Amino acid sequence: MSGRLEQLHHVVALALNVDDAEVGDDASMDTVGAWDSLRHLYVVMAVEEAFDVKFDDGEAVAVTSFALIRGALERRGLTFSS
Amino acid sequence: MELAEFLTAQSDALSYLDYVEAVRAAAKAGRAGAPLRLAILRNVTVETMLPVISGELLRAGFAPEIHLGDFDAIASETMAGDAALYAFAPDFVFLCQWLEGISPQLATRFTSLSGDRVTAEVARIAGVVEMLVRAVRANTAVPILINNFPLPARPTLGILDSQQPHGQTNAILALNAQLLQLAADVPDVYIVDFMRLSAQIGSAEFYDAKQWHIARLPFGRRAQLAVGRELATFVRALRGCSKKCLVLDCDNTLWGGVIGEDGLEGIALGATYPGSCFAEFQREILNLYDRGVVLALCSKNDEADVLRVLREHPDMLLHEQHFATWFINWDDKPENLRRIAAALNIGLDALVFVDDNAFEIDFVRAELPQVATILLPKDRAEFAAALGRAGLFDSLTLTVEDRLRTGSYRADVERARLQRSSTNVAEYLSSLGIVMTFGPPSELELPRVAQLSQKTNQFNLTTRRYTEAEIRGLRAAGDARVYVMKGRDTVSDLGLVGVIVMRLSGEVADVEACFVSCRALGRNLEDAFLAAAASDVFATGRISRVVGRYLPTEKNGLCKDFYEKCGFVLIETRDGATAWALGADQRVASPRWISVEVLVPAELVR
How many domains does chain A have? Predict the structure, then answer.
C-alpha cells in the first residue's frame, strides 16, 4: 500500500525537520544535510512511534538511510508497495 | 494534525510526532504569544524532548524560546562568570540531572558502597545540587526547577534491597527528601517529580536503556512526553494560567444514566459498580473544590430534575452549595459557558469544561478555543484519573484564600441577587457593611501576594509578575512600598485581594504594580485601596507626586480608565500605554460605604 510508504516519507521528513520532498527513497545520512547523529535520535523515536515497533540497539544505530529503515520495518512484517 | 486542532486537543491524545509537526508549523506561521524564555541546563541528552516542551508551552498560549546548556556543563554554566545563561535572561531555569551522571555508584554500582558511604554519597549529591541551585539563585531571582530521581527499577540487591535501611531504594528516597528540603530553604525552587512520573508511566518506559547507551538520552518516548507536559504545568501555575473553574456536565458525567429518562431511582451513583465510578469521580471533584477550584454546572436538562438529584439523591456527594453557578437548560453549551464566565466575572480561558459527549466537546473546541476541555473516556472507571492527568488546576501554593474561594463566588451570585432588588447602588453597597483592611503584607501573606501577581490578568494595571522572593525584597527595601488589601462584608470574607507596589525615587512614588482579584470588583474597593496607598506615601512628607501607568494587554481592558476615575491627570500616552499623575495636594476619593482599617503586621512594627 502506497499510503504507508508516503507515511514513512512524511515521518522521516518531520523528524529531520525538512520538507517531505527532501526525503526520497535514496535519502540517507550522507545525502540529507540535516540528518546528523542528533537528528537520527528523532528519526528512531518517530519511526518507532508511528509504526509501533521497537528497534534493537544495533538496528537503531544502523538504520541511517530511508531504505534501511524500510528494510527494518519490512523484517517486522510491514509491507510497502511502491 | 492541523495546528488549531493541536492547540485545543487534550494533551494525552497527542503523540510525539504531533508535537514535532505542530512546533514546525508554529515556527512557519510565526505564532504570536506571550514570550517565555526557558533555560535548560542538563547532564544528559534532552534535545528530542524540546518539541514536547515547546509544543506544550504553545498550547498554554506562550511563544517559547529555549536556551539549552551544553552537554554536562551545568557547574561552569551556573557560575557567575559564565555570561550565556544569564545574558539569555531566562524566565525559568530547569536543572535537569540524571543520577548516573552525578553518582555512578548510587545509580549502578551500589554494592560497592558500605552503609556509611551510602549516607555520605547521598549527602554529597544533595550538596552538589544545592551548590548549583544557590549559584543560579545568586544570579537571578526567577523560578528554578530541579528534578528528583526515579527509584531503581531493579535495585542491585533485589528483594534484599527493600529489607535494608541503607538499601539503594531508601538511599534515593533519602536523597529526594534532601532535595525537597533544599526547595523549601531556597525561595522559588520547585521539584519536578521524576519519581512520580516514572511510577506513573512505569520505570521500564521512563528509562530507555538503548538510547541511553547510544546517545546518553535516558528518557523513553513516553517519559519525554510526561516531562514536557509537567514543565508546562509548572509554567502555567507560575504564570497565572492555571484554570479557575471546572464546568461539569451532569448525565453520564456526575452519575450514570439520564436523569430525565431514568429518574432519581434509575441513575447509577453509589457504593457499588457502576455507581462507584461516579462516586469516585465526585470525590476527585471535591478534592479540587477543597483546593479552591470553583465548580459550575452546564447541562442540557430541566433544571428541576438536576436540582432534585443535588438535593435528594442519598449518594450524591456534590450539592448545591458546592456550585458557584449553573446553567441547566436546552441552549447550546458554548452559549452557557459564556454565561458562566460572565456570571463569575472570569475569562473564558479560566474554564475547564468536562463532558462525556464528543459532540459537545468538539462544539466547544470549535466555538470557544480558549476553553480547556476534557472528554471523559469510554471507561467510566478512568473518569477520576482523566481529570487528574490534565493537571490544569495545578498550583504551587495552597492559601487560605483558595479554600474560601467557591464560597466567595457563591456570595457574589447572592450579592447580585440583592443588587437587583435594591433600587440604589450606593444604598445597596452601604447595606453590605464592607470593610477594607490596608497595610503592608505579613510574612505569612507573601506567598499569596506572589500568587495573586501571577494569577491576576483583568484588573492588573501593569501585569508585572512577582516571585515570593522579589516581594520579600521589596517589602524590606527603603525605596519601595508594598501594600495589600483585604476585604470582607456581612456576606463573606474575601481574604487578601489586592496589591500595590510603589517605587520611591526622589519626590516621586511610581506605582510599579496595582492588581485586584476579580472577585473583589464591583464594590469600589480598588478606589479605597489606591486612596489609602497614596495617602500613606504622601504622609511621609517627602513625596510630592504619585505616578501610575496602564500597560494594555489582551485582558486588562477593564482597568484602562482606573487612574482617570480616581482623579489622576494624564501625563503621557504611547502605543496605548498611558501614564497618570496625582499631586500631594490632591486626594483620591474613598467611597463612603467602605470602612478602612489600617493593619501593620506585628513583625514590621519597630
Answer: 1
